[in-house]
Amino acid sequence: MKEILSGNEAIARGAFEAGVKVASAYPGTPSTEILENTVKYSSINSSWAPNEKVALEVGLGASFAGARAIVCMKHVGVNVAADPLFTSSYTGVGGGLLLVAADDPEMHSSQDEQDSRNYAKFAKLPMLEPADSMECKEFTKLAFQLSEEYDTPVMLRSCTRISHGKSIVELKEPITGLPEPKLVKNAKKLVMLPGNARLRHPVVEERILKLEEYGSTWSINREEMRSTEIGVICGGVTYQYVREALPEVSTLKLGMVYPLPKKLIKEFAKKVKRLFVVEELDPFIGEQVKAMGISVTGKEIIPICGELSPGLIKSAFSKAGIISYKRPEAITLEELPPRPPNMCPGCPHRGFFYALNKLNAYVTGDIGCYTLGFMPPLNAMDTCVCMGASISNASGMVRILSPEEQKRVVAVIGDSTFLHTGVNSLMEMAYNQVPATVAILDNRITAMTGRQENPTSGFSLSGEVAPEVNIPQLCNSMGIKHVRIVDPHDLTETEKVLKEEMERTEPSVIITNRPCCLIKEEKRFKSGDINTVDTEKCSGCRACLKIGCPAIEWIPAPDGKKGKAKIDQLLCNGCDVCQQLCKFDAIH
Question: Inter-axis angle of helices 389-398 and 423-431, to 10 degrees?
């Protein structure tokens, strides 16, 4: 049977067909949908973890007990999981262990461009890179075979276009006859004390050499000879781009991008007059090929930043005088108005950021929907580095500021991000009694990646009722004496509480208590709660526009006088924040 699947759906299917028993992840675009699909297979125990480090340790534990396990995360999540990742290279596995790292070239939903291939080389682990959905499924299955044969975790690199693009996949039945999980004591291999680790390091080095040799004969690394003039080394999504942009050139398609099949590369290089590497982001393959003493062109003509495309590759080869290509003339379209990212109508974060802006707070931000507090007209975020950094950044700032400047610093973090890596940061702040204000925006869900459950939401990935972490009690247990809970839709109360806590000379926490307006289970409004504008009373003062709600439109006056506000009845969900801003009682 065949189906059209996205890369993420195909990876989940591959895990099912490979007999995977455990799947663990923290949601992160573009990897999120893998776990949302493994949970559909009852044979796989699928669950969200509080962060990527925990997810990998869960998968590693299942592997030690003899089960096949898959762990999924986006590229920056690998940074969080790096500690167990590197040591797992030394311990090896029991059942096969696969780590899927989904990169995000062009930063569609990320704070940086990061090439996860470097982690495979750094940790000395094999990495596979599929080029379409069918390969996503098949490479997932191959990864478990490779993992068990060579006693190593395996990494699989995807990217936004592979994860979300769709193509035909042939479905098969799951494998049978895998060993039943059981506990086997092997402390010398799994307890990484220095004495044991020293013995394991040579094993890791020998394993990489064996994998390199195997890669030169493995069918997922293949030559496709079409011409002796130009040869291109590529893999993953760039293989698809090269085939479309340069159909006449010969290609060496790499399915395993680390370790590189050096013997195969040398043989391919001898068969073509000019050799090129086309790869997204870092010159990962290009530098290694040059180190082999082979003349090759790569990042000299291919951009190091952003996504590639067939047109971009054609243009690069044309500018370098390698092919003849005339870029098609751009189609002239009527200029469209800009559509910047924005919080949803009724988002509970909007009122809180409005208050922060009004109080001229210096906001150390974090990763989530609330990062959009940076956008105008709210303009209420001043730093954003990585998950959990908001609290730590605030803690560092306050130590060296004057008492008056200290009061302006407010760290803002969401509930899921707080549990991800914010808890340790708040613990540090409390332990060192740093006088800063922390705002935990608890919307009861992991909203930005698509409303996934987390340990505060009361439900597991499978939808079963789960224990809820009590954030106020957690803060109290760390030594935070002042914990306030506010309704962010109540602007007066929100501003009042913020003012009071910003004046404190010891750590304090403010927690907002409105859920995400898109959670299906929440009754967001009752009949009659949607707002409308009384145009007779509207003065055209534009106060309601200061919150940047997409439901509020501005209708210019035809006679050149002041325009009027209008509320889109299909978008408004009755949060009443705009009503509180109108001094003329025009919004009801």
Answer: 20
